[in-house]
Amino acid sequence: MADLSIDFCGIRSPNPFWLASAPPTNTGDQVMRAFDAGWGGAVWKTLGNPIVNVTSRFGGIDYGNTRLMGLNNVELITDRPLEVNFREMREVKKRFPKHTLVASLMVETKEEWREIIQRSEDAGADLLELNFGCPHGMCERGMGSAVGAEPKVLEEIARWAVAFARVPVIVKLTPNVGDILEPGEAAVRAGVPALSLINTVKSIMGVDLDRMVPLPRVGDASTNGGYCGPAVKPIALHLLSQLARHPQCGKLAISGIGGISNWRDAAEFIALGATSVQVCTAVMHHGFRIVEDMLEGLSDFLDEKGMSSVAELRGRAVPAYREWGELDLSYKLVADINPDTCIGCQLCYVACMDGSHQCIHLPGRTEEQSRQAGHTHLPQHVPERAVTAAAGTPGARVPFVDEEECVGCNLCQLVCPVPGCITMEEVSTGRPPESWNDRIAQGKSYVPGGLEATEAARRRNR
Amino acid sequence: MREGDAKRWALPPNRAEEGFEDKKPLYTPAEALAEANRCLYCSGAPCIQACPTGIDVPTFIRKIGTGNLKGAARTILSANLLGQSCAQVCPVEVLCAGSCVYTGWGREPIAIGRLQRYAVENTLASHPAIFQAKPPTGKRIALVGSGPASIAAAGLLALEGHTCLIYERKALPGGLNTLGIAPYKLKGQEALRELEWVLSLGRIEVRTGIEVVETATGPGQVSTTELLASHDAVFLGLGLGADARLGIPGEQGEGVQGATHLIERLKTEPGLTLEGVRRALVIGGGNTALDIAHELALLGVEVAMVYRRSEQEMGGYVHELDAARLDGVRLLENRQPVEILREDGRVVAMRLAFLAEGKPLPGAGETLPTDLVAVAIGQERATQVARAFAGVVLDERGRVKVDPLTHRTGNPKVWSGGDCVNGGKEVVNAVAEAKLAVRDIQRYLAGE
After folding, report:
1. Lowest mean pLDDT: which of A255-264, B28-37, B266-275?
2. Which of A16, A285, B377, B418 is the most buried (most CB within 10 A)?
3. Distance from CA of A230 to the nearest CA of B (A)
4. B45 → chain A, closest CA residue
5. Which residues of B touch A349 (CB under 8 A)?
6. Pairwise CA distance, residues B338 & B353, whole Å
7. Least confident of A328-342, A431-445, B333-347
8. Is A219 left (phi over 0), alpha (psi -120 to 50) or beta?
9. How many Å lie between the alpha carbon of B31 and the closest alpha carbon of chain A?
């Protein structure tokens, strides 16, 4: 059995699964129930000068039959008195001494930072997370993402925090910036040992088309909220990988956040450089109980891959991230449709025709019909293949891939509803591996962006 | 909707059919959304090809999924004006849903019929005016019979601006849809509601209680020559005739009923109870036999179907037999009625001979006690009316002969469709045939 415990910039945690600072960590009672369920740590709902919230405050996006593909909120930091929060934190730490208790903090002045850090540490916080990410409500007051988007301010406040704190400090980053490395580097300069990301993405969840008010609706108006949930995972992974590859930022401990809903998501974040992961939306959707599957799934996964600890998984996929110019232009895939499992829905056909390169053909057509349908390149022979999947589908025909024309884009495989029916097969081009940068270096190609860009690239590669 | 007309054709209360529950009730919005979102939105989908009227099924389902309910109904009704009744009575298990690609994957097919009912029923209830008829053309078209074929044809012709006059010899219009559909699928009043909607599309007049005959002899009759003379075109939607008879001793009298006649009574006759009927035998193996057997079983009667061949050879749908069996219907294969036994005139039992591969086994048989015999071995053809039109020809099985592409008969002014042409198929086939006929009538009226 793999060891799920982690060392997060010197702080031990029984497992990498932490609750993110959010409604699920609003009270000591919730956090204790979560720890009982198996969560390794919790980032307490952000402490600061208590606020008053609006209603409603959550908005959801469904996709098809999937509820809450994304969630957004306009909820602010804690709305409960600080003394109550600190008393409950003390109680939690007393009853769960080995679990990781993180205090999320957001205040304005240097003095306030000094005071709240001291009180958090007195309450038993193992780590402090500076909330420089919240994109609504608090940023208008000069906090949250207003800080995260301003590297100089971020650096200064983080420097105060490091100076005031006895425990390690985490800077929580906002994705609402042009380049995540700027706040990342500012955090490095401030001397913090850890980062967490992403906070929520600025968003409007929808529009109530009857009332003509954006969502979530507060009376007859709305405002932007913070987007989270499964839909933001790809954004979070990208920003995480940017930081993990960075020579300085990559040395910090990173707590990954953003749409993590199960052990597989967690494993992906860890493989791209996270040490711990923070979960919120999935818990808001399904409750604390989901951690049992996360623990079991990650443990079995590590065992299967012959890894004995989470640390062994950490960052494994980082080196495989390359700039586009470093990718091998000689690598080629073509789609292959398995006639034995094809059910004849022809979604691959219509996707390729309208959304890609018109290289999937339907059998039984004349050349004239094919051209009318929009094909400009016709293969020599399109085999007539009836659907043979069990029970059969009368009249359905198995589409055919013209390998000569297929660009290997993946789209047909992505739209095919039957797992494994369309596979992408490697084919040899007979050319040695060669990247765009190689070609530039040899003066064989030029860079999009005009002659000046080409010249600049050539100089760089010389 | 024209309320007055609806009242004119209201069915009386206290009919047996009112006691039947819908086998496939109207979806709730949440159910419809969940099911619609399961559809893959196939390209060139087999379900479209499996529908005789070619409804663009994936498109209407996608529209339900996006909340475009009116658009979904428009997609359905543009292809099939009787989308409401077809949604409820179509054997989707062997048509659209039966060809759903999910079946090829071993998964439950999309419940296309129920989604169609959801879209059409809700839309027509809130937005009945989704089609606008073209300006009047002054052309008059007579339609003989008011079953699904005529209703569909009249609706389409009315949308083209023509005036339609439907001649129906019965008091209630709608033919099979009103009088013959199993009530757990579609009730008479629902069929009349759909008919009302079709009438609302344009200039359509229904003349009930009018018989079309070769030579009119009094009020309530109109002659074929007069009909031809006073209209620009004629459509024959005659349906089928009376139930065929067994031709065995004991058949005459109370306790033996033709199946479609009995179904009609269950649907229309107030206060019809099957008092004293504890056991019934249904003779036949087709879908009408299954319908009446299933209906009787749902009314609490102990029902056995008597079929002369094996289950595998039955004409009725397998899914209908399965459903009937769930409600208690038994199937007796390889048996042939020999005699109906009576006591004091009352049916008490039936003698059956055993058959093997359709041939009697000498001396082998049984006598089963029964209170009622329902005969469902086919229907006669409504040949008299058709023959009365000059030039209209019947085939050797009594079906009206038409050009399959245009549904035009031997009389250049007469078209036909539905059961009288196909010998007895689904409502959706009647609609499909009506569409072909209307397309050709249009060409004819345009002088092409």
Report:
1. B266-275
2. B418
3. 19
4. A345
5. 43-44
6. 6
7. A431-445
8. left
9. 11
Q: Does B220 touch chain A (CB under 8 A)?
A: no
Assign B315 to helix, strand or coil. Answer: coil
Average pLDDT for A56-60: 96
Alpha-carbon span A139 to A136, nearest angstrom: 6
Tell me: pLDDT of A89 over 60. Answer: yes
| Token code pair at residue A341 | 């499992």
**What is the per-residue pLDDT for A447?**
61
Question: pLDDT digits over A93-113, tens only?
Answer: 999 999 999 999 999 999 999
pLDDT at A392 over 70: no
**pLDDT number for residue A440:** 85
A275 vs A265: CA distance, rounded Å: 13
* Collapsed DSSP state (helix, strand, coil) of residue A37: helix
Identify the residue whose tokens are 């000094």. Answer: A114
- Contact list in B for residue A393 (CB cut-off 8 A) is 46, 99-101, 103-104
A399 touches chain B (CB under 8 A): no
Q: Average pLDDT, stretch B283-308?
A: 97
Burial of B9 (0-12, 13-18, 19+ CB in 10 A): buried
**Chain A CB within 8 Å of residue B384 CB:** no
- Say if A344 is an interface residue toward chain B (CB within 8 Å): yes
Please indicate whether, in this complex, the C-beta atoms of B40 and A349 are within 8 angstroms of each other.
no
> How much is the average pLDDT of B18-35?
96
Mark whether A134 is an active-site residue.
Answer: yes
pTM (predicted TM-score): 0.92
pLDDT for the residue numbered A390: 54
Decide: B415 and B235 in contact? Cβ < 8 Å: yes
CB pairs under 8 A between A and B: 64
Q: Are B351 and B339 in contact (CB under 8 A)?
A: yes
> What's the pLDDT at A388?
64
- Residues A295-324: tens digit of each pLDDT: 999 999 999 999 999 999 999 999 999 999
In this prediction, residues A12-29 reach a mean pLDDT of 98
Q: CA-CA distances (angstroms) from residue B433 to A300, B146, B151, B237, B408?
A: 62, 15, 12, 10, 10
pLDDT for the residue A461: 64
A346 to chain B: which residues are within 8 Å by CB? 42-45
Q: Centre a 10 Å sphere on the Cβ of residue A245 and count the other Cβ atoms it contains.
A: 18
Q: Which residues of B touch A417 (CB under 8 A)?
A: 40
CB contacts of B68 in chain A (<8 Å) are none
Q: Is B356 on the interface with A (CB under 8 A)?
A: no
Catalytic residue among A134, A412, A416, A421: A134
- Give the per-residue SS3 of A57-117: CEEEEEECCEEEEEEEECCCCCCCCHHHHHHHHHHHHHHCCCCEEEEEECCCCHHHHHHHH
- What is the C-alpha separation between A144 and A134, in angstroms, rounded? 5
What CA–CA distance (Å, rounded) separates B63 from B78? 14
Write down the residue that tokens 């003066």 correspond to: A443
pLDDT reading at B4 higher than 60: no
Predicted complex ipTM: 0.87
Whether residue A445 is predicted with pLDDT greater than 70 in this model: the reply is: no
pLDDT in tens, A242-258: 999 999 999 999 999 99
What are the percentages of helix, strand and coil residues in chain A, rounded to 5?
35, 20, 40
Tokens of A274: 């996270």
Question: For chain B, what is the mean pLDDT?
Answer: 95
B97–chain A nearest CA distance, Å: 10
Q: How does DSSP assign A336-396, residue by residue?
A: EE-TTT--S--HHHHHHHHHS-S-EE-TT--HHHHHHHT-SS--S-----B--STT--TT-
- Asked if A65 and B100 come within 8 Å (Cβ–Cβ), the reply is no
